[in-house]
């Protein structure tokens, strides 16, 4: 009997030391894709994001903990379109994980799956941080989320075929809920059509395009260049002849310039979550767009 218990204990110890086979390790570059992977992967995935809602996704540091997560990932989901060009190539090189390199099933670039806006006709570095492949902030149009979801569900099924039916079922359920939410958002957003705004950075293009809004200026004189007093003063004058209803910035962006302009142009400065986790109620993708529309509609009244 003693031998039996010793044998049993050793067997349990061996099982405990074995790697868990259930979870597909998904690493995303931005929180919106982590939220989408969680929606589709459910209990079959372990998801983490390289950035948070309060970080600029253009610039992060590849810390050892992030390199380790990259090395162990089965699937990498990023925006692409050069959004992560300043840090992702170095991260992939240091991690040395062939499964998630570009061109592999474990690598998804969301920006390549949707229609791109603001693709430059020419490249001139004197114009600031212009993205050669177009504006990369594709997630702010919920129609793009649906397109990426379809591919992500297919890729999860390819990587983990034993759970393919589970992923397809999760995607079907998500798609139904997402289409219902999109119909609701489109109805709610009707008063926003034609509304003019000022952006902090050119990162709201897909949101504005979806809602039929338009930008008349940016707090940055050039993309990636911090707002200057001279440029903001010119912007005040411009808004007298070309009025805007509000000033928009993401939660991760410094609020001082938008506050300065708001006080002088007498229009509200609106902080949008920008991504999942950017506000208390933007806890998932549905909350992200609920909060975004709520704040836009309040400022447009």
What does this structure look like?
With 301 residues, the protein is α/β, with parallel strands linked by helices. The protein has helices at 2-17, 31-41, 64-71, 88-95, 142-159, 164-188, 205-211, 229-241, 256-265, 285-300; strands spanning 24-28, 45-49, 75-78, 107-109, 196-199, 214-218, 246-250, 269-272. α2 (31-41) links the parallel β1 and β2 (45-49). It starts with a helix and ends with a helix.
Please specify the SSE layout and strand pairing.
Layout: H1 2-17, E1 24-28, H2 31-41, E2 45-49, H3 64-71, E3 75-78, H4 88-95, E4 107-109, H5 142-159, H6 164-188, E5 196-199, H7 205-211, E6 214-218, H8 229-241, E7 246-250, H9 256-265, E8 269-272, H10 285-300
Parallel strand pairs: 1-2, 1-3, 3-4, 5-6, 5-7, 7-8
Helix pairs in contact: 2-5, 3-4, 5-6, 6-10, 8-9
Q: TL;DR?
A:
By secondary structure, this protein is α/β, with parallel strands linked by helices. Helix content is 44%, strand content 12%.
The proportion of residues forming helix, as a percent range, comes to: 40-55%
What value does the Rg take, in angstroms?
22 Å
Query: Strand-residue fraction?
Result: 5-15%
| Quaternary structure of the protein | single chain
The mean pLDDT is 91
Distance between the termini: 78 Å
Please trace the helix and strand order, writing H or E for each element.
HEHEHEHEHHEHEHEHEH
- Major sheet, described briefly? 4 strands, parallel
Strand order of the largest sheet: 2-1-3-4
Judged by helices, strands and strand pairing, the structural class is: alpha/beta
Low-confidence stretches: 1-20
Count of individual helical segments: 10
* Shape call: globular
Q: Work out the number of β strands.
A: 8
